[in-house]
Amino acid sequence: MRETPLVPGSTVWFTPGTIHRAVNLGGLEVLVIMQNAGLPEAGDAVMTFPPEVVADPGRYREAAALPIGAPEEEVEAAVARRRELAVEGYLRIAAALRAGDTEPLRRFYRHAVALVRPKVAAWREIWEGASPGRRARPPRCSTRWNAATRGISCGPR
Fold first, then answer.
1. Best CA proximity match to 39, nearest among 102, 122, 104, 99
2. What's the alpha-carbon Rg for the chain, to the nearest Å?
3. C-alpha 63: how far from its chain's center?
4. pLDDT by residue (tens digit) across 64-110?
5. Smallest Cα–Cα separation from 85: which of 41, 52, 107?
6. What are the beta bridge partners of residue 131?
7. How many CA atoms lie within 13 A of 116 on its CB side?
8. For 29-59, what is each residue's pLDDT tens digit?
9. Cα(49)–Cα(60) distance, rounded to whole angstroms?
């Protein structure tokens, strides 16, 4: 586990699958640049909800969903609940890692892979820029993403 203090001028980069949490202690303006071809919007991020939630696809979807067309106050409350639940799960994983126990992290990754496996084919189309009858040249970052996700689409070998 590594912590990187965010100060003006910081650059933080990590690979797909890295659990990360940004904590702004006040006043820091953050510019996020992502090379992911819109994959978060396609559901590639898995929030670090507690294991009993991440292990159950129905509970996970319910916890991750935000109300559509709801008043702003209702959406903000749902965002806050979702954030708090993700922080709760993250803190459990972090505490276990600090104690030398990697099983909660491994369990999270297993459940996360199970949650996203059905979406991988659609993601591949996004990052390859594929459209019916045409195959675009993948962006430079695709090689890394392809390597990082190879086991997800076909399952354990």
1. 122
2. 17
3. 14
4. 998 999 999 999 999 999 999 999 999 999 999 999 999 999 999 99
5. 52
6. 134
7. 24
8. 877 776 655 555 556 678 999 999 999 999 9
9. 8
User: What phi and psi values does residue 96 have, to the nearest 5 degrees?
Assistant: -65, -45
CA-wise closest residue to 40 among 108, 93, 110, 116 = 116
pTM: predicted TM-score of the whole model, two decimal places: 0.70
> Residue 26 corresponds to which amino acid?
G
pLDDT for residue 148: 53
Contacts of 111 by beta carbon, 8 Å cutoff, 6+ apart: 46, 51, 54, 55
Q: Print the SS3 string covering the chain.
A: CCCCCCCCCCCCCCCCCCCCCCCCCCCCCCCCCCCCCCCHHHCCCCCCCCHHHHCCHHHHHHHHCCCCCCCHHHHHHHHHHHHHHHHHHHHHHHHHHHCCCCHHHHHHHHHHHHHHHHHHHHHHHHHHCCECCECCCCCCCHHHHHHHHHHHHHCCC
